[in-house]
Write a sequence for this structure.
């Protein structure tokens, strides 16, 4: 099957990290649902996704410039890097002008971006630590989205953010047991223990979260080493992310 030039260009521009999209969108939606959506959210979402695209291509450029013998390989990321970066700045400027505290939020994410860049430079992007580091600013978007709507932070949003961190950190570990580390018993044990602790932590924060985190624990214990196809793993994670969003949106 011949791929059209437009589709080929789209594939080069859009990051092919399917698991990242739920991590980007769910905290944003949860913050908006809890704090109230405003017109500014319609601008914040594309800025957020463009920032991710910019960071992704920056990391790939750094990685390939160090490792690839083909000088064209890193240069393929320059056009998306410039395009996403310019669009992010253009859309983000009026948003930050109206809410200057957004610049502080962006600065808070910078150290985590630096760690991800370092791992890209070392060609170690798939490390467990790098994945967990990426989770933190992604879940921090819940605070940003919530404050953009409500104007302040309260106990509900901190509970929701902590629950997001618990879930997506566990997802990094769980997905490794299903794909790259599926033959590793230590990884499976670590994932099961983590998800068991997460059930207790989530229940302590709010009993409403107990059922969904119990479900996450069951999937982490029962599915590894069963030969589940990658596509099915991804579909289940989309479903779990949707269940998390529903649970967060219903927090009292």
């Amino acid at each position: 099957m011949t791929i059209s030039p437009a589709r080929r260009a789209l594939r080069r521009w859009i990051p092919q990290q399917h698991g990242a999209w739920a991590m980007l969108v769910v905290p944003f939606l949860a913050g908006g649902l809890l704090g109230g959506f405003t017109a500014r959210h319609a601008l914040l979402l594309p800025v957020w996704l463009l920032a991710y695209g910019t960071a992704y291509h920056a990391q790939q450029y750094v990685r390939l410039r160090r490792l690839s013998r083909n000088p064209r390989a890193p240069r393929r990321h320059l056009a998306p890097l410039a395009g996403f970066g310019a669009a992010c700045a253009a859309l983000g400027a009026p948003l930050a002008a109206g809410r200057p505290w957004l610049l502080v939020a962006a600065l808070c994410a910078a150290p985590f971006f630096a760690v991800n860049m370092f791992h890209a430079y070392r060609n170690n992007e798939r490390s467990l630590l790098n994945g967990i580091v990426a989770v933190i600013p992604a879940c921090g978007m819940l605070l940003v989205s919530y404050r953009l709507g409500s104007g302040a932070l309260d106990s509900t949003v901190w509970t929701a953010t902590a629950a997001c961190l618990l879930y997506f950190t566990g997802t990094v570990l769980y997905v490794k047991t299903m794909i790259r580390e599926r033959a590793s018993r230590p990884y499976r044990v670590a994932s099961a223990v983590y998800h068991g602790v997460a059930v207790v932590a989530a229940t302590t924060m709010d009993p409403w979260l107990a059922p969904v985190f119990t479900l996450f624990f069951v999937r982490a214990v029962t599915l590894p080493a069963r030969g589940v196809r990658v596509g099915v793993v991804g579909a289940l994670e989309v479903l779990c992310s949707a269940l998390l969003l529903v649970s967060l949106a219903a927090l009292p």
Q: What stands out?
A: The chain is about 80% helix and 0% strand. The longest helix spans residues 41-67.
